[in-house]
């Protein structure tokens, strides 16, 4: 991780942009750490807040767009060829697509805060043939909020950014798990009511 932070320190905004593109696409890049560290660099005067935000937002938006178009272009052929090996039947894919069109697009906004989910949601959005304008309406504001919140966190905690990040990951995960359980219960109850009608 330290080598990545050194890379950002050396290459500045371009380093932040390209690392976030790779991280959002799914490579093992510590995205939140990059943003909080960049916020710390803002507090020291080494990064300009507007340029750091623009680099982070453009990197995140580019990465999630790439994932969306990968899902849209290659998703169905991948499922047809390899789905049976990972127990991904056409019916299961249709169920996921239907769920995504009903409520899943909100994951494009909040999924940034969940490592692993932010990579997956864009792929599923593409596979589900979610219209690009709908994808953009949920994914890009989510990128702006996510980038802004972690940059601000790094800016305000300054040199304590490492310890703060550990605490944030701990409590954010708890809140997200609770939110997912509630959302799953809501969806199951809604589906039962719809089938009963």
Helix content: over 70%
CA-atom Rg in angstroms: 18 Å
Q: Strand count, sense and closure of the main sheet?
A: none
By helix and strand content, what is the structural category? Answer: mainly alpha
Dominant shape? globular
Query: Could you tell me the strand content as a percent range?
Result: under 5%
Question: How many strand segments?
Answer: 0
Quote the average pLDDT.
Answer: 77
N→C terminal distance: 53 Å
Number of helices: 8
Topology order in helix (H) and strand (E) letters: HHHHHHHH
How many domains is the backbone divided into?
1
Low-pLDDT regions? none
How would you describe this protein?
This protein is mainly α and 197 residues long. It has one domain. It has eight helices and no strands. The chain has helices spanning 2-25, 31-43, 49-82, 90-102, 107-110, 117-127, 132-157, 161-196. α1 packs across α3 (49-82) and α3 packs across α6. It is globular, with a radius of gyration of 18 Å.
Strand-helix topology:
Elements lengths: L1 H24 L5 H13 L5 H34 L7 H13 L4 H4 L6 H11 L4 H26 L3 H36 L1
Could you list some keywords that capture this structure?
about 200 residues; mainly alpha
């Amino acid at each position: 991780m330290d080598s990545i932070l050194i890379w950002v320190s050396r290459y500045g905004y371009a380093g932040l942009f390209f690392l976030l593109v790779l991280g959002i696409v799914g490579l093992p890049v510590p995205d939140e750490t990059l943003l909080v560290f960049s916020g710390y660099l803002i507090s020291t005067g080494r990064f300009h807040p507007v340029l750091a935000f623009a680099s982070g937002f453009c990197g995140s938006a580019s990465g999630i767009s790439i994932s969306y178009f990968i899902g849209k272009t290659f998703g169905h052929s991948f499922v047809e060829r390899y789905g049976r090996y990972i127990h991904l039947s056409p019916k299961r894919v249709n169920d996921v697509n239907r769920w995504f069109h009903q409520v899943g697009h909100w994951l494009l906004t909040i999924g940034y805060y969940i490592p692993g989910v932010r990579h997956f949601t864009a792929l599923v959005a593409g596979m589900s043939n979610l219209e690009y304008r709908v994808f953009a309406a949920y994914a890009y504001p989510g990128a702006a909020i996510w980038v802004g919140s972690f940059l601000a966190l790094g800016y305000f905690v300054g040199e304590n950014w490492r310890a703060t990040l550990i605490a944030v990951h701990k409590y954010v995960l708890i809140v997200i798990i609770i939110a997912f359980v509630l959302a799953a219960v809501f969806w199951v109850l809604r589906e039962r009511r719809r089938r009963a009608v």
